[in-house]
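dumping this here before i forget
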Amino acid sequence: MRPELRAPGAGLTSFPDVPDGVRLIDLAWNAITEVPGRVAGLASLEELRLDGNRLRALPDLSGLTALRALHVDGNALTAVPACPPALESLFLYGNRVRTLPGRLGGRLRHLSAGANGLTEVPGSLWRLTRLESLNLAGNALTEVPAAVGGLTGLRMLDLGHNRLTSIPPELGDLALTDYLYLSDNLFTEVPAAIGRLDRLAYLNLTDNRLTRLPDALGRMAALVELRLYGNRLESLPETIGGLTRLRELHLQGNRLTRLPAAVAELEELRVLDLRDNLLGKLPDTLPSGLRQLDLRNNRLRELPDRLPALDKLDLRWNKLDGEPEVLRRLAARGCVVLR
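structure:
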């Protein structure tokens, strides 16, 4: 077996001696300020992990023909080093890279360039058809072009914490399966095309300016978790009942005055967070599998005669009339009821 050099979090301030033929170097979470030029000649190196150091620059690594993964998150790099064309994973999160190179390796499968202060990305990025995960969160992007639809292999996309004002409909052309983060932008609406993401498991649209959701949301049949807190939603579409695999629904901090009856059709729902809304009543029927229901700071005066077999019900900062019998029954079954 080819040698490896592993010394993460070892308090190093300089690059140690490297054995010949090394396959992997893991020097993450040290205080290294410079990578010596000899590293660029390690012909057998397949993975280089340098996250969390104090690097300001890297040598030209384009000659490392065996290198498949480069990890340099959390440094102080101002430019992307020259990389070999066969590189598959490039992790640059939390540096000071203001511009990505015009040409990125066509074999890239994972690219993380979040928290760098990027205001734009090169058009060539949207042609990386082998890309499976893309993280551009925490930058200063104002636009995602229609060309995003060209990322035909993408499973995970993070565009959160930018300055985006619109979601391109072409996002619905992607084959996303794992997650889509669109939180903390400036969106006021969601295109109906999002309903075409019918294999997506996790969708985060928190902390935007949304006032409504498209009916097409109900076609996202694979969703397991949906986060919508911190918007301006006044209602939910009746089609939400189509999310039959949904287990968590987070709606804190909106302007909801009612829930659609179709919520009862969410048979897999276990967590429903409705804190800080304007709800005056609940539907007569809630999902039978619900276990955690958070209703803090609404305008409830009464509760339905029947509630699911909850493990926890939080009703604080409501002013219910009297002592509803349903609360006594829940408490008798062991539910934690907070008022």
